[in-house]
Design brief:
228 residues, 13% strand
Length: 228
Amino acid sequence: MTQSKILNQKSTIDLVVFDLGRVLLRISDDWDHAAALAGRPGLAGLTGDLSTAEARGTHHPLAGLLDRYETGRVMPDVFFAEGERLSGHAAADLRAVMDAVLIEAFPGAAELIERLADRPVRTACLSNTNAGHWDAMHDPGHRAYLPLHRLDFPWASQLFGLAKPDPAIYARCEQDADVLPGAVLFFDDLPENVAAAADRGWRAELVPRDLDNPVPLIQERLASYGLT
């Protein structure tokens, strides 16, 4: 196995992988919170916490459709047209709620990505997201912009056709990066995703959801591995 960079002498980590929502980005608590932020409280109840496997597998009207959207099986226009049919709510209102899910990049998150890009370790993101949110996070004019182009591997569920915590998505990352599981350091806010990564042999760190800004904690954990 080849290594594209020399490992930091204080660490055996070759690849740092970040989830995005609630790790580098402030996002809504769930669909109902996003509906309130968008000024569409009447759209509450259509699905749950958009980031969880549980919400994608429930009886809510948009649950199955959301799972297909986040795994790239439907594109934005199809998602909103089908969402309108399933929910009885206008596609424009559904778009407003989905846009409200992304609140802002956490202070210091962009700087952290830039700083790690100059360190002797490879970096990646691995997010359950969708084509619309992915485009927004790449747009320098959007409030949720992050310099994802500075990552060695900008990975996302809709690009792989897989979503966390499916073990296959972690295996795909290992294959793409040509990295051993024990050399991966992973940050995520969902216990189910962290557990699945740990089962693969990744060094998985759970980011608490109750932090106003998790970036300082992430920096501390990176320092403990000798990476900052």
